[in-house]
Design brief:
Order of helices and strands: HHEHHHEHHEEHEEHE
Distance between the termini: 33 Å
Number of strands: 7
Strand order of the largest sheet: 1-7-6-2-3
Radius of gyration: 18 Å
Number of domains: 1
Structural class: alpha/beta
Strand content: 5-15%
Largest sheet: 5 strands, parallel
Helix content: 25-40%
Shape: globular
CATH class: Alpha Beta
CATH topology: Rossmann fold
CATH architecture: 3-Layer(aba) Sandwich
Length: 245
């Protein structure tokens, strides 16, 4: 495993590694000219496009009219305003995310951010700032980087929008959300996310866009949204690379 020298950021390290090591498809491992997917895996990537639920971004099988909501959002409205994702969470996007999140493939961030920018263009246009979903310091030390913050910083740089990386914090370490159902995920993150006192006043009246890698049940982004709204944010939308359908 390659460790970043203290005087270099991960972006610089990845640029050097791109010169030394040929790029590989994040799914099957064959060599490719550009970061991301090979020509065989690319057709198996499922990108989300209209028609979709105006509120949560769930894709519809057919067009049901402008500003339509899915049944789940009619039954229970989430605390966030709108949610969008670039891809469905399946074998291809899962391999991409695992390579990025746990395999130090940070060179995937630019192409992932470009997909997110396309999927969330309306949300980005309305936002005053980007806020990544936080990691607890213990998990951050083990992983060495917050994948949501990497995506937010890359997206912020390409869209010329402010990123408030330290707007939120986790007040205690929790178990992984993997394998938990909706109720278990809600309990796991209940009361563990709070605004950082140093930047709390800067959030008042702002429209914020919350950034994460995957939207599953919405428990984590809902907890983050509530924390931002308590800190005075006017509106919170959500943008992720993938979402579970």
């Amino acid at each position: 495993m390659i460790k970043a020298p203290r005087h270099l950021g991960w972006g610089a390290v990845n640029a050097v590694m791109d010169l030394l090591v040929p790029r590989q498809c994040a799914v099957c491992g064959v060599f490719v000219q550009n970061a991301g997917l090979c020509t065989t895996c690319w057709p198996n990537a499922h990108f989300i496009a209209a028609p979709l639920c105006e509120r949560c971004g769930l894709p519809f099988d057919y067009d049901v009219g402008a500003d339509a909501w899915c049944g789940a959002r009619v039954a229970q409205s989430p605390p966030f305003g709108r949610a969008r994702a670039a891809m469905t969470y399946d074998d291809v996007s899962r391999a991409l995310i695992l390579s990025f999140k746990h395999g130090d493939r940070l060179g995937l961030a630019p192409i992932m951010a470009s997909w997110m920018r396309h999927a969330g263009s309306d949300l980005i246009g309305d936002a005053h700032g980007l806020v990544p979903v936080p990691l607890h310091p213990r998990r951050l030390r083990r992983r060495r980087y917050n994948q949501a913050a990497v995506l937010a910083n890359t997206l912020g740089a390409t869209c010329a929008i402010e990123v408030q990386s330290n707007a939120l914090r986790r007040t205690r370490h929790t178990a992984s959300q993997n394998g938990l159902g909706r109720k278990g995920r809600d309990r796991n993150v209940r009361g563990v996310i709070a605004p950082t006192s140093a930047v709390g006043p800067q959030l008042e009246g702002r429209r914020l866009l919350l950034i994460d890698d995957v939207l599953t049940t919405g428990a984590t982004v809902s907890a983050c949204t509530r924390a931002l709204l308590r800190a005075g944010a006017a509106q919170v939308d959500v943008l992720t690379l993938a979402r579970v359908i």
